[in-house]
Structure formats: C-alpha cells, structure tokens
Amino acid sequence: MEQPADDAEWWKHAVVYQVAPRSFHDSNGDGIGDLGGLLERMDHFSWLGVDAVWLCPIYPTPNRDFGYDVSDFCALAPEMGTMEQLDELIARLHERDIRLLLDFVPNHTADDHAWFRASRSSRADPQRDWYVWRDGAANGGAPNNWLSRFGGSAWEWDEGTGQYYYHAFLKEQPDLNWYNPSVRAAMHDVLRFWLRRGVDGFRVDAAAVLAEDDLLRDDPPDPEAEEMPPPGRLKRAYSDDRPETLGYIEEIRAVVDEFPDRVLLAEVDVASGDPGRFYGFDTPRFHLPLNYVLLDCSWEPDALGAEIDAYFASVMSHGWPNWVIGSHDKPRIASKIGYDKVGIAAVLLFTLPGTAILYQGDEIGMPDVEIPRDRVRDPFALRVPGFGLGRDPHRVPMRWSPGPNADFTTGEPWLPMGAIESGSTVAEQAADEMSLLHLFRRLIRFRHSALCPRDSFRPWRNQAGVMLFERHGRAGRHLVAANLSGGRRLLDLKLRGTVAISTRPDREATRLDGPLELKRDEALVLHIESD
Ligand code: GLC
Ligand code: CA
User: Which residues does 280 contact at the CB level (< 8 Å), separation at least 6?
Assistant: First the structure.
C-alpha cells in the first residue's frame, strides 16, 4: 500500500526551485539581484506551486567566482541585503508552506576570509593548518601535478611563508583542510548558525572534493581525455572523491539531523557516474546527491531511456532519486534540446519518480545568451578559453515582463539581458494559458494531487521514438508518453483513458479510445481507465 509522504519526508515529493539571487530581481537599481528583489517576487513561487527555494550563495564575497568564494560564512553580502530581510524571507516563505535552502560551500573560502589571512600570516599561526600547505617538490616546483578545475596548477606559491597552498578551484579560493578537526567543528557551527535561523537545509557545493590524498600522489593521465579542456586531462584519482570525504559528509549529515525535517542536496560530480555511496549505507550521508542525467545526456530516445534506467539501478535500492533540468553551471535545457521540447523535459521532470529540481527561467524556457567578449565575467570562461565553458550564458537575469531590462532592474544589469523575444517573459506567459509557464504550473499541481512519491514506476518499451512509462498508485494508473521522435506519431497502445496533462493544453480532459496520436514534440500524461 502506498503511504503519503509524512512531513519528515516532505522533500521526496518536493519541487525545488533554484534561484541565483544576483540574477533574480534587483530591488535597488544597482543591477544586481538581491533579497529585496526576492521578497518582491514571492508570488511567483506560490503561483507556480514550488515547495522549496534554494538560493545560490548570498554571503560576503569578492565575487571572483560570483559568491562561491565566501569571505564570511555567517554573514550576508551587502549587495544581497540584510539579516532582517533574510529572516523576513524565511518567515514569508514558511507562511506559504515553502522551505528555504541555502548553498553551503565547505571545500574552500575566499582568500580574504579571516581564517586564510591568519593561516597565511605565518607558519606558526594557530590557523596555519586550517588550509592545505605543502613544501615544493625537490626540483623546487609545485608539490605534485594536481590541476585546478579552473585551469593551471592547483598549487599556489606563497612568497611570505615559502610554501604552496592547494586550491581545487581558483587561487583566490584556497581549500580548507578537512583533515583538521577544528576546521570541521567550525564548519559544523556554520551549519547550526543557519539552521537555528530557520533555514530548512542546504545544497552542498563541490561535496566530493573535501579531502585530497595525504600522500600527494600524482593524478594519472586520462588517455580518453586528450581532447578535453586542459583541466580535464588528468584522472582525478587522488584529488577528488577520496574515501575520507565520505566520513566528513556523515558528520555534516549528523549536524543537520540535530534539527527536524531538514534536507541536504549535494553537488557530487563523480567520474564513475554512480552516486550510490553518496546516500550512505548504514550511516546516512546526503538525502539528494544531485542527478544531472536530463541535462548531460543525449536526448535520443533510446539513449535517454538507458540513462534513466541506469540511474534507477544505481539509486533505487537505497536512496531517493532526483531530477534536475537546470543549473547555474550548465547550459540551459532550452538551448540543449530546443525551446519546443522544453515541455517534454517538464513532463519528465515532474512525473519521473523522485524530487524535481528546476532553475530560475526554466519555466519560461529561457535560452543561453551569447555574451559579448567584453562582458564576460565568469572566471572559468576567462581562464580556460576556447572550449565554450563559460557559465555567464545561463546566468543572465530573469525575464519578468516586456520593457526595459525585462523588469529585472531599473539600472544597468550586471550581465547583459540578451535579445528577448515577444511572449517569452513571465508576465506574458502568465497571461497566456497555452504557455510553457502554465504547463509547469499544471504539472506541479498534477504531481501534488495525483501522483504519490511512492507510486510504482514501470518503464515500457520505447515505440517509434516515443518514450513511455507508467506510474501506478493511489490515484490509479498513469501512462506518460514523450514524443522524442522529431515527427508526428500514431501509437496503437490498446488502452482507454483520459488525457490528464499535455504539452498541448487543448487536449487535456479529452478521452482516448483508439490509437494515440502525438504531435511533434508532444508529451502527455494519460489516466488509464482500461486496457
Ligand atoms: C560548484 C559551483 C560552481 C562553483 C564551484 C566552486 O561547482 O556550483 O558554480 O564555481 O563549485 O565553488
Ligand atoms: Ca540590487
């Protein structure tokens, strides 16, 4: 028998909406989105029906990596707003039954963080060992061959104290030394600080890279990666995904579990593609190691079906699945598969079993925006040029309504807005029931009213480029059909039912009693009455 999720498991059925606050809404005309802007746009969350909002970092930062370089973990960036505004945001979201998640960046700090300033001040400083300091190699060069993800050596020479420090990302983002129990205790207190303020959980940044091999063994070359951008040409055997990290994750989880009903999402970009161990076995780790299959994989129907199947195989026995269709780090779904197919992505996102995670703008089909050379801000694009790795295109401001700067700001937006087509803003789509935005809203309502998280899932064979699967539970049987073929399809499924949701709204509530016709790029959910 299926049970509705109890409150401690609210996150299983949840729709999580990721906000990049700098690009959400600007309330004071400085061109940078802020907490005031979030407060003004609160109705968007309740209108859409999301259960949780996750904010990218809002802490003080020199913005070398746009907030992922944190100068103080327990304060807010002045351009974001005040603690009073954050408290108000939490309270007003909670009134609407919406939870708030923050980004937690455990792996590194900004180089102007007080801890790092102390640590680099002298070898004798009590906080010296809070970061990863090493002598150079015998030949005087860097301690080993490890590479920064953002280009070049992962080691930076410090003239003042005559040693190198390690940085998995920018040299302005020195790695904390997670082997050090004082570092772990300090970071646990950061979590408690926000949890006591009423935050409902975190998305843990770069969670697999907390520890590096203590022997500093060289990473081996990756023969399959010769064509890759330079930072990807070594296998991160010793600098990523070390067993020690899993123990540190268990400690983080234990801290979060001191508070009821909280949740941990995590970025675990692992080479093997199997997130299983990040859930934990006897001792819990993350509730939701984020799953990027829908964003990373080919949308050829058999390939996509196989990836979904492999993901379930690795997760279902001991973890709860999740699906992500957008992120501040990855090309937009609308640019990957084309605007006309975003509706299919939405149908899959909200009907596949698991937690659903979308990124601001996905609900209006925002595309990647080409950034003129002189407006590029992302350090990844600037330091590893020529591979199309820049993340600015998917970080441009949200498009609220037609008019100057799409009503994001009255000032000069920090990134260009791009060309905005008519009908593509939130206001226009909200006024048009045939829009993508309305499809997202209907799907979220349908998910909450007619699907139960524990409804069983049964894949069917793909037919003629149409992906098919069934959900079965309290509210009966539903067939999901996603036409990925690129053409019109007629399927003889030999069943009768009613269309519950379709990417073509005029078809909803119509009966099916005969072959199923799917228009190009159509996806639908059919309530099965008999077969
Ligand atoms: C994560 C973030 C990314 C950031 C990096 C370094 O991958 O999502 O935006 O640049 O960590 O903190
Ligand atoms: Ca602002």
Answer: 246, 249, 250, 253, 286
